Amino acid sequence: MRILGIESSCDETAAAVVEDGERVLSSVVASQMATHGKYGGVVPELASREHLRAIVLVVREALESAGTTLDDLAAIAATVGPGLVGSLLVGLTYAKSLSFARGVPLIAVNHIEGHIHAVVMEAKRDGSPVQLPAMALVASGGHTHLFEVREGFRYRLLGRTRDDAAGEAFDKVAKLLGYGYPGGPIIDRLAPHGDPKAVRFTFARMKGNALDFSFSGLKTAVLRWVEARNMEAEIAARRALLRENPVPAVEEWLAVTPRATRDLLASFQHAVIHELLTRAVAAAESIGARALIISGGVACNSGLRAAAQGMRLAYPVYFPSPGLSTDNAAMIAAAAFPKLARGEFAALDVKAQPNLALA
Question: What is the pLDDT of residue 68?
Fold first, then answer.
């Protein structure tokens, strides 16, 4: 059984073919980083335009790389939400067109569920399937959620961010300090060169749901730290480096990053990781979880991976491979297989849902 997955929820145009829910035959991603980097974030109108340019070529390449034709498919899966509505419409409309033209069933997939299934798919392939119930932390530039994953892949939301997502906090702090967009990977590369305990950050106690997250205060604390120091020349030097070289090496970044700023970055990353793992473990213990899943773009963070794998827990911690941590279509196809088994097909009038919930 082969499913073609199509993902276009934000700024990545992606297509993939997955076989039997565990074997990735192809995974193609067209990045828009160069388009949005100059603006310091994703511009929705530009994102949808770039999806239109890339969608046909990306799907064609995914099929050809997998040695698959549309007639070989058991279904076509597409992200229906959440995400940017203009971006979602491009991938979903193209999937509808292929489904209608070839009479192949259409499956609508929640983007967040896709991130969870990226882990489930690889664990199954590697012979160590995720045991349920599991706790899933999905952390990216747009999401920071804690879900209980029950038998039959049913979900219960236990916690979420009340303001910025974790990945968004990384990107905003990096932009403030002159590191450009996306900033999360840059902070992760520089953090090992600083002292994670040099700058002390505190988090407000959450009223109501103690499993909810809040990162806006942390971002504001970094802003106040910067305002208290004369950093204009330092930040200008980093911006100048970006203009000369859009992808500086670590050594180049270190040359324009004094020790105090390295300590700030290390302390900031340490604080975010501590917040994520503390709540994820508390949530896992509250439901008697048999596994902890950590997925989404922030799952690429090497500091987060090292901290999670260094914890002594009574259950395993699963991460997706880096290529399946960020937005991709293999995870969308993987999430479609349980729906295929249950016969959960979408009608051709299914709408893009930018605020779609998973629960």
Answer: 97
Sequence-separated (6 or more) residues with CB below 8 Å from residue 101: none
List the beta bridge partners of residue 137.
Answer: 146, 294
Q: Write 52-56 long-range contacts (CB < 8 A, 24+).
A: 52/90, 54/13, 54/30, 55/6, 55/8, 55/13, 55/90, 55/91, 55/94, 56/94
16 close to 55: Cβ distance less than 8 angstroms: no
- Residue 39 pLDDT more than 80? no
Q: What is the pTM of this model?
A: 0.93
Helix axes 44-65, 85-102, angle to 10 degrees: 30
Yes or no: say if 297 and 325 are a contact pair by the CB < 8 Å rule.
yes
Residues 26 and 4: their CA atoms lie apart, in Å, by 9
What is residue 99's predicted lDDT score, i.e. its pLDDT?
A: 98
| Helix pair 166-176, 216-227: axis angle to 10 deg | 10
Residue 135 contacts residue 283 (beta carbons within 8 Å): yes
Other Cβ atoms less than 10 A from the Cβ of 231: the count is 18
- How large is the greatest C-alpha to C-alpha distance in the chain, in angstroms? 64
The closest of 354, 320, 287, 352 to 134, measured between CA atoms, is 287
**C-alpha span between 219 and 262 (Å, rounded):** 16
The whole-number pLDDT of residue 118 equals 97
CA 332 remoteness from chain centre = 13
pLDDT band (50, 70, 90) for residue 276: very high
Cα 64 to Cα 230: distance, rounded to the nearest angstrom: 55
Residue 77 makes CB contacts below 8 A (sequence gap 6+) with: 3, 4, 5, 6, 95, 106, 107, 108, 109, 332, 333, 335, 336, 339
Which residues of the chain does CATH 3.30.420.40 include? 2-122+323-342, 131-315
Q: Under CATH, which architecture does the 2-122+323-342 domain have?
A: 2-Layer Sandwich (3.30)
CATH architecture group of domain 131-315: 2-Layer Sandwich (3.30)
